[in-house]
Amino acid sequence: MKTMRDLWFTSDNTPQPQPPVPVIYVRDARTIIYKIIARDVDAEAAPTEAELNALGAEGWQIAGITTLGNQLTLYLQKLAD
Known about the structure:
Blueprint: H1 4-8, E1 32-40, H2 49-57, E2 61-68, E3 71-79
Antiparallel strand pairs: 1-3, 2-3
């Protein structure tokens, strides 16, 4: 079985041509923006399916959900325009 050394050197230790180094082009840095929706479920209803669908249509995705007592908190994220 050949080793990595065998692939890059001949028996007389002369190096073989190296493979090209890959180049990665980044057009622009993307920024993620966040939104927090906090609801007291005793005083108001949790977000409805229609509200969440409207946020999804704007590009928002749920990144996390927490509850503490009666407080429901949704953490949303999307790529900045």
